[in-house]
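Why does this matter for the project? Reviewers at the last site visit asked to see concrete outputs rather than summary tables. In response, this paragraph embeds two records directly. Each consists of the residue sequence and, immediately after it, the corresponding structure tokens. Nothing has been edited or filtered.
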Amino acid sequence: MFQPIAVYRSFDPHQELSAFIECYWSWQVEPDGDALDDIFPDASPEFIVHFKSIPFVLTESGKWRQQNRAFLYCAAHKALRLSVREPMSVFAIRFRPWGVGRFSKVSMASMLDRPVLPSESLNEIGDQLVKELRSAESDSSRVAVADSLLMNALQSHSTIEPRLKMLLEAANGGRCSSAEMARKLSVSDRSFSRLWSDVVGIQPRKFVQLMRFHNALELIDGGVKLSRVAADCGYSDQAHMARQIKVIAGLAPSSLRRRLGNAVYRDLYASRPGAPWRGPK
């Protein structure tokens, strides 16, 4: 099995940004050959800046295409297969599913499952972020740059509905339907769906499916019996869980368990400070 040399580090954003940004992270990789990895959808947008080599992504046509040097990407409906062929250095801003709407004038629904250039995704601060992050000499200085620019944008641009801060608690780890979440927030199903979709980009039902999937990932990786995983994560039964996982990951639960042992996954994902459905501490 491929075992790359990889170091993942995460950093907390400024407290006033934590409702919209989960973390900043950096990743240093020195592959021994061609490393393949799947990035599973979670509806959490990430602003990525590459400093060394740039990995390749498998397109729907079955061809490999090199990624952009800097971009925002939100995997919402399908897994993204990457090929890391040379030493790579990355710094990224991981937004919460509703977080980009606090800094951008562009609808999140128009930015799903595709690389979005900095100037489109984060408007006037996008290119400035890339320039200053690439000029910084350390992760700590990059964190300071990101905090400064995003805090200024936070103060000057506000479009997000305050009640969205309650959505995470209302969702109850993926165990609530969109109708139940709407009732908790005292809004109609239609209003809730429209509000959620405008900011997060996908329908509430799809987001609940992704939450369940990532809850299941943690338990499957931990060796929990699959029937117990299905019950604990809100699936109707094990067969229902298998179908949902196959749609999202392209793998059966048993195959997914083997894939989670991949060193790239374990370094980049298992050490993250929180899953995408978890709110600020």
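We now turn to the second protein, recorded in exactly the same manner.
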Amino acid sequence: MKKLVYFCALATLGFWLSVPPASATLILTLSTPNAALSCCTGPYATVSVTQTSNTTADIEFDSLTNGGYIYLMGDGGTADLSVNGTYTLGPVTETNSIAGFTPDNSPANSPGNVNGLGFFNLSLNNFDGFHDTATKITFTLTNTSGIPWLTDADVLAPNGHDAVAAVHAFACVQPGCSTDSGAFVTGYAGGGTPNGPPPVERSVPEPQTLALLGLGLVSLMLVRRQRMA
């Protein structure tokens, strides 16, 4: 019986070493507008950060609908991040949930200042204006700094304006937004740290935790059977 317990322990240890940690997702809300966008009710967009390893992370920008507007992302400073350390940018995918728009899937990355929100070392610039906007932007970052990202929160770092992300938002009346309707106003929105709501960490149980729980239950069952015998 003891040999069986030892076997279960070794098997669980092997499983624990072979399975990578489960990822979590950090949700950041962009709710701080610059002067041009202060007319319109936010928040304006969210940014999801999912660390997939110590050197990689998946990023997703999503438009929000508030105050009678949907906030499309486009033009200069389409999507901006203050990345913690040096990085390489993977392929960018942009989509728009509203028919007729032609999002840019090859935006230029031109780090720089975003109006009223500080400097960002990642700044995507779409080719055109309103017709080129997106409601979702996704890409992968690869850490080249040599300092690992141990958590989702390590991927980004606040800039001099306490912002970690920003978007160039086109406020389009909703319902009824279309390529013909045009934008009511355009401006920038940022946040993710003190200026906006606190980040929300959404995680899933780690396989290691589940494996250890399983080992404990098996061990208790075997000990109980041994005593009964």
